[in-house]
Amino acid sequence: MEETSVQPTHVHAPPQGFLWKHVFSLDHKVIGKQYYALALVAVFTGMFLSWLMRFHLVWPNTPIPGLQFLSKVGAPGGLITPEYYLSLLTMHGTLMVFFVLTNAPFAAFGNYFLPIQIGAEDMAFPRFNMMSFWTTFLAFLVLMLAFFIPDGPPISGWTAYAPLSAVGGDAGPGLAWGQNLWAISIAIFCAGSLLGALNFIATTIDLRAKGMTFMRMPICTWAWFITSCIALLAFAVLLPACILLILDRTAGTSFFIPSGLVVSDHLQPHSGGSPLLWQHLFWFFGHPEVYIAILPAAGIVSHILINSMRKPLLSAKVIIYSMMSIGFLSYMVWGHHMFLSGMNPASGLAFSFPTLTITIPATIITLIWIGSLYGANLRMDSASLFALGFISMFVTGGVSGFFLAQPSLDIYLHGTYFVVGHFHMVMGVAALFGVFAATYFWFGKMTGHMMNETLGKVHFWLTFIGTYCIFMPFHYLGLVGNIRRYSSFVNDFMGPLMPLHKFITIAALCTGAAQFIFLFNLVYSRFKGPKAPDNPWQGTTLEWTVPSPPPWNNFGDTHPIVYHDPYQYGVKGSKGDFIMQDSPEQATGGVAG
Amino acid sequence: MSTTHPSVVGEPPALISTPVAALARANARASSAAEASHSGVWVAIFAITMSFVAFTSALFVREGASGDWTHLTLPTILYWNTLTLFAASATFELSRHAIFVGREFRSASARSGSGWLLLTLALGLLFVAGQFAAWRQLSSQGLYLATSPNSSFFYVLTVAHALHVLGGMLALGWLVRQRLGGQPLRRRSFESTSIYWHFMAVLWLYLLIVLRTKL
Amino acid sequence: MGKFFAVVLVIIALVSAYPIVTHKYAPPVDISTHGHAIDEQLADTMAEAGLAFLGAQLLLAFFIWKFSGRKEGEKVSAIPSGAKIMVAAAFIFVGTEVLALGVFGQKAWASVYFTAPAADALQVQAQAGQFAFYFRYPGPDGKFGPLHPDKIDEGNANFFGLDPANDVESRDDVVAAEMAIPVNKEIHMLMHAKDVGHSFFIRELRIQQDFVPGLDLSLHFTATKIGKYEIVCTQLCGLGHYNMKAYLNVLSQEDFDKWMKEKIAEQ
């Protein structure tokens, strides 16, 4: 041993006082919950914005009472202006992609359960961990600030295509300070996510308990680990892109702004920049971001499904390898967002093949999930329902990817609601189903109280049917050629589609309302829910060996020792049909994996 | 078997340590946390490399995007700065030698090597000051951030690198403080800082080559 | 609960497929020479994706129906073939499907992007700006005058920034707010963005292409059916994005010549 320090120290001391226990806590569990709370605020805000958008699309002349107090300029008399619609759209996308889909499945649950599942006391760098949350929180505040400046939030969409996002206030409302706040917020967010990803990777590599080999890690731990590798690369590229964008906007540089642009009758004082450069940098981040959202959810769903089936997956290894290849391929496909952007048409073909190839590992994962159901003893609790719903959504969102991966079909479908339907299904709804499943599954562990199952099931049915009602029709609209990001449909061919739009809006309002059942369940169960046992679902992995909720140092004074692969289900154990990872007893007569 | 299961033996959530267990535990934990700093620094290097690859590919794309790419003569002081940064790497290695080589490791709690560490810190500071002089020199020639794409990339790349060097100097300063205070020094923390510090020199060399050939 | 889930899932799958199978929502009739390749590709993809969708959802529903709600502690088993068959199936079915789509799908793409416009194609320049399209024809001399962004003056209808006082080629250029083209004649469209990114989409023509500021792209196509078709912007370009549209007016050759004559007289 090279160490000179022999004091009996923990990674950090037990926290004292409210501030250090709940606010500036170094405890990965508190930080995980903080991420979850932030995602919860963001998701309800984002959902509220989508309500406003859907409402405005179908009842443009009906004032929304009280909205004028949110923005006097954007919604005079409660009627949303076209530019405010775009502000809502931008903020909806940014909140959902960054603060919900990155935070909830990855940062929140990853923070809480990755250290416990590998038998660690905390993250490798607890201080970085705390910083990464507070950085993310700061990013959130900066973004939300855009609602409260006279200019309003930016109107350039969550993709912030240059030069619209780069030339400043000339290009429209929200593009002066609103867009600055956006770019600063995203840059801060990148920094926070990089810190988080670094922590996840170092923790997984170095802090695994004795006997916890890589192949003995639960699938969701693997998913968080792979995701953090993806995130490390992705945010390391988005951060420079945001810096260059901020410089173009504030310092007069011309990275993304070409010469000779006349915006609002002003010849822009820039020259020679490349708008495509922004798109390349953005999508180099943007496509992997999809997998940052979906892989943790896929890992969580695998973890929950195995528990609900009471048997291991046909092959956890194949799922892990498939996730790795998805992660790897995700860096070779960003150009499929840019088929029609004017880049070399030959590169369109070059990006199309790896994109289509991603279908193969994705199909393998799906088939293993479905095939593993064969012969299962399937429980149907809320977590399980959402996990199964996830598979259905993943398939639905996945098959529409077939279309968009082909440049020739992109000629027709690009920029239509088909794309909106596709990514909402696969990245939005599917990932959120993973988050819901995780919440019902782990809430007891995280708070010490079980969630209400009846409310959970009601929530599932409304959400499952509701989201199909919202997002399936998006595909139909896209096939007819309905353009996305339009604040009203003045075109001849979009008028006849209005009944379908009305159906979607009503479905969105109902499905959104159903989420308040979930919110109520969260709050109610937190205080009034029955006490959670240590292992309510008869799980095998290490999070079920610690009390609910776990003490500040997770395993107390003991060191977990791991004897098994994570999923010893369908066997004869001393406690039932399972053997826990830290139990030395040997399985007899298990299910062939 | 059931003793590995805290909830079964009903261990209270608050921690009560027996000295022996705590010692064994401290050893195990200290080791893994320090190892984490080691892999942490490699992961960080990977991310920083990726960021600079993004910056420099932006440079290549931007160069090809239009005809306004001009020539920019690098201030000569940059080459002196390069020497400074590499000298700082060398003094860091000398401090390693002074601390860890040829002695019982137990004596590492003495203050040996803190002189070399201080010199490294000073050289790092000199490097940043030299970069600052280069920026001053360019701006006195009328070359500001927004003057041309070349000057834009010059400032962006050099400032981004200098900020990372300052980050390394924070870690270095922490080592110096440990040393001067006679506090125990973990080999792994030292190693992690040294890896990062040498990486700064290598990264600078890469940037210098890009700047020299492209601007 | 499992049986209910299965039933709901089957209903969702079938109801989702119904509008597709009945072509209730479908692209409008194609009026281009290259569009049939895209339509065929769309139909093929729809068939394959539809089968994958229905197959997976129905199988999922069937397994949930069969293997849920059993007694606690009941013996579980695994599908005898194990994971290998899943991997093999993914590789064989999806792999070939992907390869087929990838290879055949390139035909349509290539017909748009890998062919050169005919030498006698009619040149039209399209300019996109917040929030209108303008079109320019080279006029009798067959040459476009150069663009001067500093000369753009919307008040005086100088949308392109032409300088007829100094540029001879600009004097006979024809500028219009609608895109009139002759039927069955190849059009070589030059695309120019005035301010920010825009896109050019005509559903019936199966044409969509971004306008990229600083990067003048070109595209060629032939319309085969006389009529008026909407041109819409599909790249978010600011507050008036939803309202940025123009018309493609496909005319017979005689009508087009007449239209052009009137326009020249107006200039």
As for the CATH topology of chain A, it is Cytochrome C Oxidase, Chain A
Strand content of chain A: under 5%
Compute the average pLDDT of chain A. 93
Task: Give, in spatial order, the strands making up the sheet with the most strands of chain C.
Answer: 3-2-1-5-8
Order of helices and strands of chain A: HHHHHHHEEHHHHHHHHEE
- Strands across the major sheet of chain A, in which order? 1-2
* Low-confidence runs of at least 5 consecutive residues of chain C: none
Low-confidence stretches of chain A: 1-9
Tally of DSSP helical segments of chain A: 15
Supply the number of structural domains of chain A.
1
Structural Rg of chain C: 26 Å
Q: Largest sheet of chain C at a glance? A: 5 strands, mixed
SSE class of chain A: mainly alpha
Helix content of chain C: 25-40%
Strand elements of chain C, count: 10
CATH fold assignment of the largest domain in chain C: Immunoglobulin-like
Short summary:
The complex is a heterotrimer of chains A (593), B (215) and C (267). Chain B is an all-alpha fold.
Note the topology:
The complex is a heterotrimer of chains A (593), B (215) and C (267).
Chain A: H1 17-23, H2 28-58, H3 67-70, H4 82-117, H5 126-145, H6 177-206, H7 219-250, E1 262-263, E2 266-267, H8 275-309, H9 316-329, H10 345-373, H11 382-404, H12 407-413, H13 417-447, H14 453-480, H15 498-528, E3 568-573, E4 576-579
Chain B: H1 6-9, H2 19-65, H3 77-100, H4 114-140, H5 149-180, H6 187-214
Chain C: H1 2-21, H2 35-67, H3 82-113, E1 122-129, E2 132-137, E3 174-176, E4 179-182, E5 186-193, E6 198-202, E7 207-211, E8 217-222, E9 227-232, E10 245-251, H4 253-266
Parallel strand pairs in C: 1-5, 4-10
Antiparallel strand pairs in C: 1-2, 2-3, 5-8, 6-7, 9-10
Helix pairs in contact in C: 1-2, 2-3
Write up what this structure looks like.
The complex is a heterotrimer of chains A (593), B (215) and C (267). Chain A is mainly alpha-helical. Chain A has a single domain (23-257, 273-579), classed as Cytochrome C Oxidase, Chain A (Up-down Bundle). In chain A, 60% of the residues lie in helices and 2% in strands. Chain A contains 15 helices and 4 strands. A two-stranded antiparallel sheet of chain A has the order 1-2. In chain A, a hairpin with a 2-residue loop joins β1 (262-263) and β2 (266-267). The longest helix of chain A has 36 residues, at 82-117. The two termini of chain A are 40 Å apart. Chain B has 215 residues and is mainly alpha-helical. Chain B has a single domain (41-214), classed as Up-down Bundle (Four Helix Bundle (Hemerythrin (Met), subunit A)), CATH 1.20.120. The N and C termini of chain B lie far apart (67 Å). Chain B is built from 6 helices and no strands. By secondary structure, chain C is of the alpha+beta class. The longest helix of chain C has 33 residues, at 35-67. The mean pLDDT of chain C is 93. In chain C, β6 and β7 (207-211) form a beta hairpin. In chain C, the strands form 3 sheets. Chain C has a 5-stranded mixed beta sheet. A 3-stranded mixed beta sheet of chain C has the order 4-10-9. In chain C, strands 6-7 form a two-stranded antiparallel sheet. Classes of the chains: A mainly alpha (593), B mainly alpha (215), C alpha+beta (267). The interface between A and C is large, with 117 and 108 residues.
